[in-house]
């Protein structure tokens, strides 16, 4: 995708995220953004999404599919407040790391501290000169509000205005509705 960027924040700049192929053990051949090695030293590289407008009052769900190798690379998931400044990175989750597994449709809920513009960021770090991490797809959505159902049996007498019921006025011209 052309609207994604990278930040190579490694002590010695070298290889960073790039489009790569990978054969997933349980899902066949996949194309994705990969970070394979950083021969100049330990990698510290970010894959940065386009900007999103997030609200502090909402919870968001990040869906992603990825793979990590047990021997190389840690995946940190968070956001940046400046898409070109790694020092603005805030981590809200760690990627799973279990052998060479493929984590398909992983879901992570997150919030932001204030209303504003944020870029999602996927950071790879390692103490080694290599990091094997592949990111195949990403989706972000507003988390649906959980509805707590009323326990059964249920009954009500409308002797006063109910507080736990709502009305919808779907008239062509809004006016009087249930009351």
The succession of helices and strands, N to C, reads EEEEEEEEEE
- The backbone outline, from C-alpha atoms, is elongated
Measured by DSSP, the beta-strand proportion falls in over 45%
Helix vs. strand class:
mainly beta
Largest sheet: 5 strands, antiparallel
Structure commentary:
The protein is mostly beta strands. Helices cover 0% and strands 47% of the residues. It contains no helices and ten strands. It has strands at residues 5-8, 18-24, 28-37, 44-54, 60-68, 74-80, 90-94, 102-110, 116-125, 130-142. The chain has a five-stranded antiparallel sheet with strand order 1-4-9-6-7, with no helix packed on it. A five-stranded antiparallel sheet has the order 2-3-10-5-8, with no helix packed on it. β2 and β3 form a beta hairpin. The radius of gyration is 22 Å and the shape is elongated. The mean pLDDT is 82.
């Amino acid at each position: 995708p052309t609207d994604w960027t990278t930040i190579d924040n490694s002590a010695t700049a070298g290889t960073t995220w790039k489009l790569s192929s990978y054969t997933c053990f349980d899902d066949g051949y996949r194309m994705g953004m990969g970070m394979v090695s950083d021969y100049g030293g330990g990698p510290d590289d970010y894959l940065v999404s386009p900007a999103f407008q997030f609200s502090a009052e909402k919870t968001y769900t990040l869906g992603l599919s990825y793979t990590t190798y047990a021997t190389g690379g840690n995946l940190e998931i968070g956001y940046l407040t400046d898409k070109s400044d790694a020092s603005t990175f805030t981590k809200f989750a760690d990627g799973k790391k279990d052998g060479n597994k493929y984590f398909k449709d992983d879901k992570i809920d997150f919030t932001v501290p204030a209303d504003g513009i944020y870029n999602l960021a996927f950071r790879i770090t390692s103490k080694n000169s290599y990091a094997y991490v592949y990111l195949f797809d990403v989706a972000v959505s507003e988390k649906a509000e959980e509805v707590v159902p009323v326990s059964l049996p249920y009954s009500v007498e409308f002797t006063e205005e109910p507080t736990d019921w709502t009305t919808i006025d779907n008239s062509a011209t809004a006016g009087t509705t249930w009351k």
